[in-house]
Amino acid sequence: MDKNQYFIHINRAQVKVTEEVHRVYHKMGRRERYLGERDATQGKILYSDLDTQEVTGEEMIPDLNAVNIEDSVVQSLMKKALHDALETLSGDEQTLIEMLYFANCGAGITQRDAAAVLGISQPAVKKRHDKIINKMRVLIVS
C-alpha cells in the first residue's frame, strides 16, 4: 500500500479517500468516543438505554403539552357544580355575581362600581358577596 493512499472502512469495505477526508473521518470518530467516555464518567444515560421490548425510552418522556384527561374531567365536573350552584341563587344574588365576575367582557366590575349601580354601600356589597360565596362553597362541596 502506497504511503500517500488513504482508506476508510464503510460497511466492511475499504474506500479510498483523500488525506483530508481520512483525517476528518478519524477526528470525528475520536470526538464521538470522547463524548461517550465523558458521558459515562458523568453518569449520563441515553433515553435509548431505557428501551424495553414494549416501549422505547423516548416514549417514556411525558408530553407536558398534552391534555391531561384526569384534569380535564375534574375541571368539567367543577364547572358543572359551579353552574348548578349559580342556578340555585336568587335573582339578586345572581345579578351581583354577574356584575362582579362576568360584566365588562368577563373581567367583572369593582365592588365600588357594583355598589353605585345597585344604590348601596361598598361594605354592603362586600358582605353580600361573601355571603353568596360561602353559600356557593357549601353547595359545591356537598
The major beta sheet can be summarized as: 2 strands, antiparallel
Helix content: 55-70%
CATH topology of the largest domain: Arc Repressor Mutant, subunit A
CATH structural class of the largest domain = Mainly Alpha
Would you tell me the overall average pLDDT?
A: 89
Overall morphology = rod-shaped
- List the total number of helices: 5
Report Rg: 35 Å
Strand order, sheet with most strands: 1-2
Low-confidence stretches: none
Report the structural category: mainly alpha
Strand content: 5-15%
Do you know the CATH architecture of the largest domain? Orthogonal Bundle
Distance between the termini: 89 Å
Could you give the count of β-strands?
2
SSE arrangement, N to C:
EEHHHHH
Going by CATH, the homologous superfamily of the largest domain would be Winged helix-like DNA-binding domain superfamily/Winged helix DNA-binding domain
- How many domains? The number is 2
